[in-house]
Amino acid sequence: MTSRFTEVVVDCHDPEGLAAFWCEVLDFKVLERREDLVEIGSWVPTVEEVRARQMPPTLVFIRVPEGKAVQKNRLHLDVSPIDRGTEDEVSRLLALGATRADVGQGPDVSWVVMRDPEGNEFCVLRTLAP
Known about the structure:
This protein has 130 residues and is α/β, with parallel strands linked by helices. It folds into two domains: 57 residues, Signal recognition particle alu RNA binding heterodimer, srp9/1; 48 residues, no CATH class. Helix content is 22%, strand content 28%. It is built from three helices and eight strands; from the N terminus they run E-H-E-E-H-E-E-H-E-E-E. The strands form two sheets. The chain has a four-stranded mixed beta sheet, covered by helices on one side. The chain has a four-stranded mixed beta sheet with strand order 5-8-7-6, with helices on one face. A hairpin with a 5-residue loop joins strand 7 and strand 8. The longest helix has 12 residues. The N and C termini lie far apart (39 Å).
């Protein structure tokens, strides 16, 4: 028997705000809300579907009292724009509240490192637009 990758959990101060940001970035919707938790995804998972095959994971934002403790996350999300160029997507994400980040990647890389509104790094990769 195996396990399935079902969620990525993000500790944060403002689950609602961070979930709203990532819903805009990924065109996800809120799947569940509780007092200190918001889960978002592109589909509503059922136990039967998850048992049958690997499905896209959801993102779960959980309120925690402490702030980010490290300069650079050891795990981060990568996103690829599907309907615009990479720089246009970076501009859109900046308007949503992201910021550019320098984690030592150097000037000649093909991706852009950014931070979400709570400082979590993520990368914008090459465009997948036709």
